[in-house]
């Protein structure tokens, strides 16, 4: 005995499409707008601690420093509105012009040396170098060690009777220059110490970028007769140009903010030969107790860094190649 089964149910959407009528709308209740709103509130709640910290410790101090830069604001005493008098005083101060030139000189010497040393070592640390990971660690150690400790060690090396002076006396029989007390050597000594301190970070960036260059491009260049230099300049350099641009930007920004090395090594001396903008701002605010003038100096430094950063971003189109 056979039984006749009911035909399978046809979904309402398929039936509507076959009949040429609009498909029925799904009933409310799947994912109501209230659930989306609750998820947004939960996201805001989790982000609130970071957002409040950003407002309290970053945004508010920035705005406050801008306001203070237009005021006579001694550490102790009455405050008054000064307008642009602080900025006029800065640009009329010969010491401010000197420290600006000192900072520019440091940047001009330090940034190219840092990039060349970092890129050269990264290019040398190819996978064919035995123990390349050990060399990476050794080169990166100065970057993660406390900078004050590094500066103190280099100060002992530079001072008369230190390791450099003793080595020169034992080898060539002459005394080394008094690097930290001679205005012709002091800035060079600070730059050398700073390069040793900071090249490891960029070296890791360049090394990782070089490792990501496709081998088939390098092999194709070598088959075409390119030597090692042409392979690097014509193949590898364009491929790692975004990493070079990033390292250049970060190194420029940090070099304009140099403070610890000249402050610990020379205290800005001899005279003001190695005093930098950040050290000038520190001395003005915390030693001379002129917070308004110090804030104005900080904003001048900010505008300088912002302008150079903007120029770099505009110029990247000519030499940075993105895939």
Strand order, biggest sheet?
A: 1-2
Cα-atom Rg, whole angstroms? Answer: 31 Å
* Percent helix: 55-70%
Regions with little confidence, pLDDT below 50 for 5+ residues: 1-18
- For the secondary structure, the number of strands is 2
Q: Determine the N-to-C terminus distance.
A: 72 Å
Oligomer state of the chains in this structure? single chain
Question: In one word, what is the shape?
Answer: globular
| N-to-C SSE string, H for helix and E for strand | HHEEHHHHHHHHHHH
Number of helices: 13
Largest sheet: 2 strands, antiparallel
Alpha-beta classification:
mainly alpha
Mean pLDDT: 87
Strand percent estimate? under 5%
């Amino acid at each position: 005995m056979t039984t006749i089964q009911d035909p399978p149910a046809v979904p309402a959407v398929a039936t509507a499409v076959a009949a040429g009528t609009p498909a029925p709308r799904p009933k409310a209740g799947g994912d109501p707008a209230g659930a989306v709103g609750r998820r947004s509130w939960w996201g805001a709640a989790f982000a609130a601690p970071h957002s409040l910290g950003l407002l309290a410790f970053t945004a508010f101090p920035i705005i406050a420093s801008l306001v203070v830069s237009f005021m006579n604001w001694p550490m102790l005493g009455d405050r008054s509105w000064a307008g642009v008098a602080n900025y006029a005083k800065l640009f009329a101060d010969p010491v401010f012009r000197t420290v600006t030139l000192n900072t520019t000189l440091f940047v001009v010497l330090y940034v190219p040396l840092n990039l060349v040393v970092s890129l050269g070592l990264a290019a040398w640390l190819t996978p064919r170098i035995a123990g390349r990971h050990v060399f990476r660690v050794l080169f990166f150690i100065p970057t993660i060690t406390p900078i004050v400790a590094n500066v103190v060690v280099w100060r002992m090396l530079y001072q008369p009777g230190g390791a450099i002076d003793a080595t020169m006396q034992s080898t060539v029989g002459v005394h080394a220059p008094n690097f930290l007390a001679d205005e012709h050597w002091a800035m060079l000594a600070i730059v050398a110490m700073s390069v040793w301190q900071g090249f490891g970070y960029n070296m890791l960036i360049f090394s990782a970028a070089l490792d990501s260059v496709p081998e088939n491009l390098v092999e194709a260049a070598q088959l075409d007769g390119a030597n090692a230099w042409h392979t690097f300049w014509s193949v590898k350099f364009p491929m790692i140009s975004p990493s070079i641009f990033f390292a250049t930007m970060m190194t420029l920004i940090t070099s304009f903010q140099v403070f610890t090395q000249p402050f610990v090594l020379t205290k800005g001396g001899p005279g003001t030969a190695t005093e930098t903008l950040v050290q000038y701002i520190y001395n003005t605010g915390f030693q001379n107790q002129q917070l308004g003038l110090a804030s104005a100096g900080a904003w001048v430094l900010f505008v300088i860094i912002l302008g150079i950063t903007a120029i770099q971003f505009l110029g990247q189109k000519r030499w940075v190649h993105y895939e």
